[in-house]
Write a structure and sequence with these properties.
Blueprint (H helix, E strand, L loop, with lengths): L3 E10 L2 E11 L15 H8 L7 E6 L3 E2 L6 H4 L18 H12 L4 H14 L15 H13 L1
Antiparallel strand pairs: 1-2, 1-3, 3-4
Helix pairs in contact: 3-4, 3-5
The chain binds adenosine-5'-triphosphate (ATP) and magnesium ion.
């Protein structure tokens, strides 16, 4: 079975169909680019995979967990799926490291020392370790984007 398997996914906003029966298989380690004009539904597809948008039809399955929202709750599923939002959605009142560690500590109940070590390594990798205690408003767009990627990976 594929890591991620999407079958016949249909999503409308009111009576405006956006995703009209999407089938997609993603293998472990595979990198897939979703390409298309603005407004065609790329972000909507990603939001559906996280259960952030209710869908009208279809199934989304994750290897080892089954059908998301059915065999496994969306709350659990979201812990297995990282997402970088189009506008990053960093919490403005939290510094970089607290943005990154919020989910791992609050939701996953990980130890700060372990999660912070992972975060530090990734911050170094994206060249932002020295911005660890900065607030989002002090960062450039690209820096915010890389912090959002680190948050998602941790
Ligand atoms: N909450 C919503 N309510 C109503 N319509 C929405 C909502 N969210 C998105 N849409 C509409 O769904 C369509 C797809 O939006 P989406 O954000 O998925 O596009 P996209 O492919 O990610 O575009 P972009 O490249 O500009 O990011 C657009 O026409 C948009 O107006
Ligand atoms: Mg988008």
């Amino acid at each position: 079975m594929s890591l991620l398997s999407i079958q016949h996914l249909q999503k409308s906003f009111a009576d405006n169909p956006i995703l009209r029966g999407i089938d997609l298989e993603v293998e472990q380690g595979e990198v897939v680019v979703i390409l298309g004009p603005s407004g065609c539904g790329k972000s909507t597809l990603l939001r559906c995979i996280n259960g952030l948008e209710p869908i009208q039809n279809g199934e989304i399955s994750l290897k080892g967990f089954g059908r998301l929202g059915q065999d496994i709750s969306w709350i659990k599923a979201r812990q297995e799926i990282g997402m970088v939002f189009q506008n990053y959605e960093l919490f403005g009142h939290m510094n970089v490291i607290n943005n990154i560690l919020l989910g791992p500590l609050q939701v996953q109940k990980r130890q700060r020392i372990e999660a912070e070590k992972v975060a530090d390594e990734l911050l170094k990798r994206v060249g932002l370790y020295d911005r660890k205690h900065d607030y989002p408003r002090q960062l450039s767009g690209g820096q915010k984007q890389r912090i959002a990627i680190v948050r998602s990976l941790v």
